[in-house]
Design goal:
CATH superfamily of the largest domain in chain B: Multidrug efflux transporter AcrB transmembrane domain
Radius of gyration of chain B: 34 Å
CATH superfamily of the largest domain in chain A: Multidrug efflux transporter AcrB transmembrane domain
CATH architecture of the largest domain in chain B: Up-down Bundle
CATH class of the largest domain in chain A: Mainly Alpha
CATH class of the largest domain in chain B: Mainly Alpha
Oligomer: heterodimer
CATH topology of the largest domain in chain B: Multidrug efflux transporter AcrB transmembrane fold
Largest interface: A-B, 95 and 103 residues
Distance between the termini of chain A: 15 Å
CATH architecture of the largest domain in chain A: Up-down Bundle
CATH topology of the largest domain in chain A: Multidrug efflux transporter AcrB transmembrane fold
Chain lengths: ~325, ~525
């Protein structure tokens, strides 16, 4: 325009790439099923490294007032307190230490009593940076609402997809979303990464992102079903995935750029959250391309339904908030 | 509305304060995790409330039946209900009539009454009456106790100093305290951790606690344990009259001070008129006898009355430190809590961690935005620049909207912001990819652009609405950190759609008009 000189961007995406996604759908399903099953096995064998939000107990982040924290000495003074297992680990820098105290038997007041013991035992050499104490009542509530939140999100999303598309799309979405949640949680189980409230937030965002991707591909499938009424379904799915692939990858790339910034510069507190997001975006992108859409190839979609919907949609779209550009 | 802008958020508080009056001043409030502070979730002991209620009810029932001259052999609690056994079963009807006078309506004068607090029904044997609290009755009880607790907690916290703490009820029986700037929560916990029910009792003249425990406690009396602050600690405790002479409710003031003789910390207190009269009459009649000062069902001290105390003021001595005397004085001044409060969740963030988080958040946000901008401009050229301008508007709108609805910015909120930047560009990507596709099919630039915006809009709406569904559920079910994240995400989704379909579109339209005006062939720079 006036200030920005015209210059062309580099469309570095090879648009003529016609990747035969549908040819490998059996392999992809097999892999996905395997990873989902593996995640379930991990849940029951390794379980999770739950944070205080879900397990109850206390978390105390302290910083040595001068120099590095002497973790061995801290361990020595905290182990003798009779408050069960105390985990001590360095956190970020050498003067920062994270102390985790397991949930105490004896209800809510016992957690506070344990916290007091730890703070007294640590003495004056440390600054308290963060204290989190969650009692048994709250931790069990948080567990319940966490599970409900994930399930309710999946249901709400699927109902919306069902309402806007045919049921086959909704089924594809639900399988893809379940896959994303299971496998992301599976990674947390496998590496025993701390699983707390922020990870639930990450899972919910991943659901939102993944379905976003799925809907974009589904939209294109629907559009192509109107355009190519006679085309073989598998070929049509392939074309649709390929046509939206540049968008899928570019959006994924920008999202990942933001998350990498969070992961590396967002501080220690956000690290696990950003890891979950990073992994989830990758998985969510994969599931839209390799699960949700190919599933339609197995399920089959009634083409005339698509045509019926086509009669109403473009008109509605044009009548919307779209003044013509001239 | 006029005063809600993003602008003030980019300057320091001092700068904003110095601005002339017509400029917007409200800044985005920072959450406790960024500015440092304490978050305490307390639960009321509802079982204790129920027990207290039954005890009060028992007293009322006894009085009511006595005045009506209806004989009863026992009043006892059975489970959640109160059981009254009459001497003469034929008086059941009369007793029911009398006891039903005790029933209190629930609700308020404006909305009308919605029920009764207890039900009084004949039991399954003749001469037996059951008084059961109703569910709405209990709920109202809990609600009243919660608001009373909030007031008391508020008074106790205010005594700590001037801070903008907020205390709100959460759910049925919980109270949330948010106290910005406070990191050492020990005194706060000390202050709210005690109910501070103060009562003054007469001591049984002859029976000692050991005797009472071995044989039986005299009727109307109860054994009270000795508090750790009691200097003349009696291992077995004291036998005290069950009904106190004076209540802590009758106190008008309590202050920490020092004993003139021993120079030890004590608490001086003053009764109101009614309390002073009762206390005066009691001390006059019992000179030379001990009386007990009881705090939360435990005896702090049991001094001997040397002379009648008629002025309505007195002092409590015990093993106090200056700090504990001060805390107790605050508690007594603020009044007793209806029931014990238990800390069920505590989250405290120190100011240094908060400041670190802000720095980290700023850096991550900046780098996230920059890398997105670079990618977009490299890929889409001039139109990419327009998309980035849309992103900037999107960012400003988020901040403005968050200031407007008065939500606080938390660390997860910053994460949500960075994420929405990455995701906001999606709307532009959808549009531009579509334009490129249309161009490849051989359309003219203008119709390709038009088709791009129109066709992509349906997809944008569909995909963003589904993400919105997840965000709304997060807000609805989430607590604390999740909620802060959900708020930013929700606002971010809305503003990203707005900025992509209006701001970018406007810029593109201006570009078309400008390029046409220069009379050269249109070449879409994407």
């Amino acid at each position: 325009m006036f200030l920005v000189p015209d210059f062309k961007g580099h469309d570095f995406f090879p648009h003529n790439l016609r990747l035969p996604f549908m040819r490998y759908k059996g392999l992809c399903f097999g892999l996905s099923l395997f990873f989902m099953a593996l995640s379930l096995v991990l849940f029951f064998t390794l379980s999770f490294n739950f944070g205080v939000d879900f397990k109850g107990g206390s978390l105390i982040e302290v910083q040595a007032k001068s120099g590095a924290a002497d973790i061995a000495a801290m361990r020595k003074s905290l182990d003798g307190l009779g408050i069960g297992e105390v985990q001590i680990q360095s956190f970020g820098t050498e003067s920062d230490v994270l102390i985790r105290v397991e949930q105490q038997p004896g209800g809510e007041d016992a957690q506070q009593a344990a916290l007091k013991k730890v703070v007294d035992a640590l003495g004056d050499g440390f600054v308290q940076r963060r204290v989190e104490v969650v009692g048994p009542a709250v931790s069990s509530e948080l567990r319940t609402t966490g599970v409900i939140a994930v399930l309710a999100s999946i249901v709400a999303i699927v109902v919306y997809v069902w309402f806007r598309f045919e049921w086959q799309f909704a089924l594809g979405a639900v399988v893809a979303l379940t896959h994303d949640v299971l496998v992301t949680a599976g990674i947390f189980s496998l590496f025993q990464l701390q699983f707390d409230l922020s990870i639930v937030a990450a899972l919910l965002t991943i659901l939102g992102y993944s379905v976003n991707d799925t809907v974009v591909v589904s939209d294109r499938i629907r559009e192509n079903m109107r355009k190519f009424k006679k085309m073989d379904l598998n070929e049509l799915l392939d074309i649709s995935i390929n046509e939206t692939l540049s968008r899928t990858l570019l959006t994924g790339l920008t999202a990942i750029a933001g998350i990498l910034a969070l992961y590396f510069f967002g501080g220690e507190v956000l690290r696990n959250f950003s890891f979950a997001m990073l992994f989830g975006i990758l998985i969510g992108t994969y599931s839209s391309v390799f699960i949700a859409a190919p599933l339609l190839g197995y399920l089959g979609v009634k083409r005339d339904l698509g045509a019926a919907a086509a009669a109403t949609k473009p008109a509605g779209g044009k009548a919307g908030a779209n003044p013509t550009i001239r | 509305m006029k005063h809600e802008f993003a602008l003030p958020n980019f300057f320091s508080k001092e700068t904003v304060a110095a601005w002339p009056g017509f400029m917007p001043k409200r800044q985005l409030a920072l959450g406790l995790d960024l500015r440092g502070g304490a978050h305490l979730l307390l639960a009321m002991d509802t079982a204790e409330l129920k027990k207290d209620w039954l005890a009060n009810q028992k007293e009322d029932v006894r009085k009511q039946l006595r005045t009506a001259k209806i004989g009863f052999s026992a009043i006892g609690a059975s489970g959640d209900a109160l059981q009254v056994r009459l001497v003469k079963p034929e008086e059941t009807e009369a007793a029911l009539k009398e006891l039903r006078k005790l029933i209190q309506p629930i609700g308020n004068a404006i909305l009308g009454t919605s029920g009764r607090d207890v039900s009084v029904e004949p039991g399954d044997e003749p001469g037996l009456i059951l008084i059961t609290p109703t569910e709405p009755g209990l709920q109202e009880r809990v609600a009243n106790a919660a608001s009373a607790s909030i007031e008391t907690v508020n008074r106790r916290i205010n005594a700590l100093g001037t801070a903008e703490s907020t205390i709100v009820r959460q759910g049925r029986d919980r109270i949330l305290i948010q106290y910005p700037g406070l990191t050492d929560t020990r005194q706060l916990k000390e202050l709210i951790g005690k109910t501070a029910k103060l009562t003054f009792h007469s001591v049984h003249p002859s029976v000692s606690a050991e005797e009472a425990k071995q044989t039986r406690v005299p009727i109307g009396y109860k054994v009270y344990e000795s508090d750790e602050r009691d200097e003349v600690r009696q291992g077995a405790g004291y036998v005290l009259a069950e009904t106190p002479v004076v209540h802590g409710d009758d106190l008008v003031d309590a202050q920490p001070s020092f004993d003139e003789r021993t120079n030890e910390p004590i608490i001086s207190f003053r009764f109101n008129q009614a309390g002073a009269r009762r206390f005066g009459a009691f001390t006059k009649d019992h000179v030379g006898e001990p009386f007990a000062i009881v705090l939360d069902e435990k005896v702090i001290s049991a001094p001997v009355i040397r002379e009648p105390i008629l002025g309505g003021s007195g002092q409590i001595s015990g093993n106090f430190t200056v700090e504990s005397a001060n805390n107790l004085a605050i508690q007594l001044r603020s009044g007793a809590l209806p029931a014990k409060l238990t800390i069920v969740e505590e989250r405290t963030v120190g100011p240094s961690l908060g400041a670190d988080s802000i720095e980290a958040g700023k850096l991550a946000g900046l780098i996230g935005c920059l890398s997105t901008a670079i990618l977009t401009i490299a890929y889409y050229g001039t139109f990419g620049v327009y998309a980035v301008i849309g992103l900037i508007v999107h960012g400003l709108l988020i901040v403005a909207l968050m200031s407007l609805i008065g939500t606080t910015l938390t660390l997860p909120g910053i994460a949500g912001f960075v994420l929405t930047i990455g995701m906001a560009v999606d709307a532009n990507v959808l549009i531009y990819e579509r334009i490129r596709e249309e161009l490849r099919t051989g359309k003219t630039p203008i119709s390709a652009i038009d088709a791009g915006f129109t066709r992509a809009f349906v997809t944008i709406a569909d995909s963003q609405l589904t993400t919105l569904a997840a965000a709304v559920i997060m807000f609805w079910l989430g607590s604390g950190p999740i909620r802060g994240f959900a708020v930013t995400l929700t606002i971010g989704i809305l503003t990203s759609v707005f900025s992509a379909v209006t701001v970018t579109r406007l810029l593109v339209a201006m570009w078309i008009r400008y390029s046409k005006g220069r009379g050269r062939a249109l070449e879409v720079p994407v």
